Amino acid sequence: MRVFVLDKNLQPLDPCHPARARELLAKGRAKVFKRYPFTIVLQNRTLEESVAHSHRIKIDPGSKTTGIAVVQEETGRVTTALEVSHRGQQIKNALDSRRALRRGRRNRKTRYRQPRFLNRTRKTGWLPPSLESRIANIETWVRRIRKLCPVTAISQELVRFDLQQIENPEISGIEYQQGELHGYEVREYLLQKWERKCAYCGIGNVPLQVEHIHPKSKGGTNRISNLCLACEPCNLKKGTQDIKEFLAKKPDVLKRILAQAKRPLKDAAAVNATRWELFRRFQATGLPVEVGSGGLTKFNRQTGGIEKSHWADAANVGKSTPERLLIRGIKPLLIIAKGHGIRQRCRPDKYGFPKAHAPSAKSFQGFQTGDIVKANIPSGKFAGNYAGRIAIRHRPSFVLQLPSLKFDVHPKYLKTIQNADGYDYALSK
Fold first, then answer.
1. Among 328, 271, 287, 222, CA closest to 58
2. Is residue 314 within 8 Å of 69, Cβ to Cβ?
């Protein structure tokens, strides 16, 4: 992955190769501006003295993980790849827990308060906090990348599945099975819905075929609710039998398939609920916004012979994708959303009663929990140099957290590398 470069006025320039960045740092012509994503600032160069090429941010929004890629439009080089892991499910679990505690208190009549669910209003376009957090994460990283790279356009995968193509009743026979883009839309949807396994025997990692649950010869339709995936032996064995006849001796498998055929995709629903709001917010940036479908993304990726991953899907979003993407040496930066702490001052026990009260101040001696620091400990059991995150106490004894070790350290031995920003970082292997 290339290194972001800023001029001396903190204006973005073209990203450079890591070897070039090391050379500039060694000669004193540049200084480190940011650790994650790694950014340097030139000491003697301005934007007017340099040439900045146009870059495009390409985004593949997901329910759990969103892929982001920055592509230089002139050369097709992927300069930056990010994979942002969301915390939507954690937020939902926290809200469910809070609701359960409040209901428990009211049911025990320990404290009565009239219900307020009928006198609250929500603004137009309101989204649940678990969905809003996904949009906020993507917005945050688009805004940060725009400050570090000369971005001129945005591409977004707006729809995961093109429902119009999926439900088109005119497509049938060989066109239905082998249509160029339509086949990608249907197959990608079914692969996710049936977890890339044969619906009948559960085998995975084998070629799978689109199978009609109720055969067309007996009145079955091409609707998605009547389609599943089957390996070749199961497909041949079933033939034109009705599924109830085929699985007469396996009632548990029959019940599971019939239930799963009509079960919606939770993750797809989360993406569908946020896609248009995300699109509107991208439009508000003033940059041109290109959109594409998930089927087109997969078509572009497979045409280019690129292995599937979140960042690779992002790099192949939209019709602007060049025929050849330069991805050699790309290792994505893995970003995990951690939040910015909690505002709750009174911590309850498992029954909902007050257990402890958190201090109102979030920092102590210039440090706060989540800061990445360097520790230079001169003596003692843990003497040496370390780099990791800290958890503060409101006394001069912090907890230094390392991948396989944690211990107490005095703040006088610490130097901040990067302030806590609500995210954790790692480089993919």
1. 287
2. yes
Task: Provide the CB-side half-sphere exposure for 200 (13 A, CA).
Answer: 25
Domain boundaries 359-420, corresponding CATH code: 2.30.30
- Terminal Cα distance for the chain, rounded: 13
Backbone angles phi, psi at 392, to 5 degrees: -85, 155
Spell out the domain ranges in the chain.
3-49, 163-261, 359-420
CATH of domain 163-261: 1.10.30
pLDDT tens for each residue of 401-424: 998 899 999 999 999 999 999 999
Please state, in angstroms and rounded to a whole number, the distance separating the CA atoms of residues 214 and 11: 61
Instruction: Give CA separation, 179 vs 170, 174, 415, in Å.
Output: 12, 8, 59
- Long-range contacts formed by 185-188: CB under 8 A, 24+ apart: 185/161, 185/293, 185/294, 185/295, 186/210, 186/224, 186/227, 188/160, 188/161, 188/294, 188/295, 188/298
Q: Which residues of the chain have pLDDT under 50?
A: 163-165, 167, 169-180
Can you say how many angstroms the Cα of residue 308 is from the centroid of all Cα atoms in its chain? 15
Instruction: Judge whether 372 and 388 are in contact, CB under 8 Å.
Output: yes
Q: Is 214 exposed, middle or buried (0-12, 13-18, 19+ CB in 10 A)?
A: middle
Backbone angles phi, psi at 277, to 5 degrees: -65, -40
Instruction: Label residue 110 exposed, middle or buried (CB < 10 Å: 0-12, 13-18, 19+).
Output: exposed
Q: What percent of the chain has pLDDT over 70?
A: 91
